[in-house]
Structures are given as structure tokens and as C-alpha cells.
Amino acid sequence: MDWNNLPQDLVDLILSNVFAKDRLNFSVVCRSWNEAVSTSPFRHSPCLMFYQRSKHLWRFSQHDNFFDMEYPELENTIILSSNHGWLLMTSRDRKNLFFYNPFNNHMIKLPSPTDIYTTICFSHPPTSPNCFLVGITTDMPFRPVIGVLKHGEGAWKVFEYYNRWHAFDVSHSPPVLLYGLFIFLDVNGNVSSFDIDKHGRGSGWGFSVRPLKQRRLRRNIKAQFLIKPKGEEDIFGVFAMHDDNRKIRVFRLDLDDLSWKLVEDLGNRVFYVSNTGSFGYTTNVKRMANKIFFPKFNGDSIVYYSLETQKYHSFEGSYSSNNSYDLRRMDLATWTMPTSSSTVDPTFTRESLAWF
Predict the structure, then answer these.
(1) Radius of gyration (Cα) for the chain, nearest Å?
(2) Which residues are 240's β-sheet partners?
(3) Proportion of the chain above pLDDT 70, given as a percent
(4) β-bridge pairing 248-254 and 269-272
(5) Contact residues for 271 (Cβ-Cβ < 8 A; gap 6+)
(6) pTM
(7) Is 181 in contact with 193 (CB distance < 8 Å)?
(8) Binning pLDDT at 50, 70 and 90, where does residue 189 land?
(9) Residue 26: φ, ψ to 5°
(10) What is the pLDDT of residues 274-292, one digit of tens each?
(11) CA dist., res. 140 & res. 138, Å (int)
(12) DSSP characters for 274-290?
């Protein structure tokens, strides 16, 4: 069968129903099939992953297609962060911390932190020697506590910093990495930087600014997400607002004057946001562009917000609404992005799956 002779729309439809590891297997059958996968508009699309407690199954949602998976290793666990095709998990009693790859079932056990962090993230795939974890809590808003765990180390290094500019109440949104600095977002739209190379010194906790100048907007934020689109240097903030006709506002962080600039149109970008993993990239699929996908459902259909219509819509069907009040929220769900290194079952050695 020569897939080059099939209509592209048909190829895209088939590939939109092929999940994660099966898509990789699909791509290695022959050259023409690999080309079909590499040019598919759905090749970068994340999956929304969440636990169905009544069924004891984990569900993946991708373009309104559902895939149920059983992971006995993840019973009574919580997702803390998602990146590079891996999940950072903890047991509900917070005593066990580990990485888990849902696409090949690999697990890497980690030393548990002594603190409970508001948000925690990791920089590289956990099999990389460059991987490190950063956790932050701001129970005392002027004294953020940051813990760092580097690959090969058996204990967290924890230091308390002093925020001399203003209170910083860190949000659940994962930070983004830019020019070697972690950029954190707080619940009022403020941003601060952390330099891991200076961890333990006062200068490690860098600039801390109030880029959202309007006080009314800062008070109106009910949810906030930070995104650095793939291949870009720009940082975007997505804010869900209280009592505002425009329920979702998007800003770009201007690094010259450290202020948020209102964004009216994302162009050909598409964002996927959640409390534990957010992704953004450019797309050549018109129906996907200028949209923000949330971990929310209308029935069984996933919901996005369109900057063009300034309304919520379902991915399939005719749902449309000015607000999200009647939607089913999945606050513990995460977006996870399969990668070639995470879906293939490579020659992982026992050493590469050991943290130290």
C-alpha cells in the first residue's frame, strides 16, 4: 500500500486516532508511512491524562478520542509535573517521589523532599545527567523556600530566600526555563526568576516584578498559567478572570520593561494549559490555531477557548458559551506530550534508570 496516494485529510484522520507508542510503531514501518507521521498536523498534540477512580483506570484524551490504560504502579498517587514525556509523581502520603513514563512504563525512584512544595518541576528528561528538580513554596510570601535536587544526588538542597521587593505568592503553574533562569508566576500575575547556579546565595532569587500594572486585573485573577511555546523565546501568561466579560486574557511578557502586554490574537499558536503541565506550539491546522485548550469537558468533549470568538467551544459538536460555569473541571489532570525518546522502548540500561 502506498500511503502517498491517499488523500492527506484521510491520513490525518487515521493518525489522529493512533495513540503515542502505536504512532511511533506506525512511523517505522516504511519511509512513506514515516513521512505521513512527520507531516501530520497532529504529531505535536498533547494528551490530557487523568485518573478515573471509579474504574481504577487512567484515561488519555486526544482530539476527543479516549484511551484507557491500567497503571497499578500509580495507585494512590498524584501527578506533580509533566514534561518531556515523563510524569513526576508522589504517593498521597508524600513519602514516595518518582518519575514515571506512561508510554513505556519505566520508573525512576527519587529522594523525597522534606518540604511540600506548591509547585515542582524538572528541567530535562530524568534519564539525562543534566536533569534537576526545582520545588518552591511561599507559605511566607516574603521568604520563598526553594529546594533543588540534581541528577546523581541523594538529598535535596533547600534554602530560604528573602524577597525584598514585594510579597510573592507562587501559583501552581509550572515555571518556564529561559536563558538558564526559571521564571515563576504568582497568583497575582507577578513574576520572579531563580538561577539554579546561584542556589544558596541571595542572588539566586533574582528579579521579582509586578508586570500586570492594573490593580483591578491583579485582584480579578482566579487561575493563571505560564507558557513558553516550543522553539520560541517569548513567555505568555494565560489568566482566567473573575467578573469580566472577557473571561480569558492572554499577555506576553515584555523582557525589556518586564511588563505584561495584552495579546489579542495568538496567530498560528495553540496552547494547552493545566496546573501540572502546559504546552504551546505553532500549528498549520487552521481549526487548531488561536485556541487555548483547558482540562475541561462538555460531556465527553474537551473544551477550548477561542480568542477569535472570545467564547468556549467543544472540540466536537456545537457547544459554545461565554463562560465555563457548566463545564466539568479536571483540576488534577495534566497534559502530557509523547516524545520519540519516551515512546520508543530503547536500550535503557539499569544505570540510566537510576537517579544516583
Answers:
(1) 20
(2) 223, 248
(3) 82
(4) unpaired
(5) 225, 227, 229, 236, 238, 278, 279, 280, 291, 292, 293
(6) 0.88
(7) yes
(8) very high
(9) -60, -40
(10) 999 999 999 888 888 999 9
(11) 5
(12) -SS--EEEE-S-TTTTT
